[in-house]
Amino acid sequence: MRGREDYFQRLQQLDPLDDHYEIYRFMVGYEFPWEMQRSLEVALMRTFCVPSISALLDKTGEFQHRPQKRYDDTGLIVAEIAKWGYESDRGSQALQRMNAIHGRFKISNEDFLYVLSTFIYEPIRWNARFGWRLMSETERLASFYFWREVGKRMHIQDIPETSPELERYNRDYEAQYFRYSDTNRRIGEATCELFLSWFPAILRSPLQSSIYTLLDDAVLEACGFPEVSPQKRSRLERLLKLRAKLVRFLPPRQQPDFFTDSHLRSYPSGYQISELGPPSVGKPSSER
């Protein structure tokens, strides 16, 4: 595409239901790759606020012992589906791998549906606050239809037929199930330590408070994190909004920037989809 105007002209001709994959792929790989990655990290933190979810994650030990691999595996599975589509060979392999990983555990349909909803609404909410432009209604609906189809292939039941219904479920679920537990705190702290490990040691202390600043009070309370002053929150929001203004002046991206296209700390020499997730998944019980 020659430029951003070309994309918008093309977008106006697309249907968010019939063309949701094409729209969502362009959003993730070209229009909002950095924003999508950051917002999904916030979505990840929100899932830790539910004791039934954090207890399962705590029990596996993946976040404590292999946090980088756990992060990379999740990002790669999501990116494979977003980049190639859930009906492609690679997308289908990623879905099968994800289902195999989840199939080892007893996870409620409620929890599955909530996690699915965070993949839709946290990027939309981040975009509304810090996007270099607002997502169109077509893009927001395409995101809903894309993840609804993924959810069906994950065998999630009772997925609402409309986006407002699912967003209402997302809000109601958080109001009912967000509460503090020690497993929330342990998983949340392990993930924050992972984020900080990507930076030089001298920057980690100020950056830790920045991570907390990106989280709302409900998440801070459920994970046992310290409160954030309104002044710190306001300063970080101004910086992110300044970044958004600067990005508007950049030329349109000519090459995709999916998570699969980035340097992977866990897989410096490349990866196979069958390698993603805990090493015991897919092996005979005698090898586990």
From TrEMBL:
- Give one GO molecular function term: oxidoreductase activity
So which domain of life are we looking at?
Bacteria
Domain ER-bound oxygenase mpaB/mpaB'/Rubber oxygenase catalytic residues, every copy: 44-241
Q: Where is the signal peptide?
A: none
Q: Where is this region: Disordered?
A: 269-288
Stored InterPro entries: MPAB, MPAB/Lcp_cat_dom
Tell me the PANTHER family matching this sequence. ER-BOUND OXYGENASE MPAB_MPAB'_RUBBER OXYGENASE CATALYTIC DOMAIN-CONTAINING PROTEIN (PTHR36124:SF1), PTHR36124
Name of protein: ER-bound oxygenase mpaB/mpaB'/Rubber oxygenase catalytic domain-containing protein
From which organism does this entry originate? Desertifilum tharense IPPAS B-1220
Native organism taxonomy: Bacteria, Bacillati, Cyanobacteriota, Cyanophyceae, Desertifilales
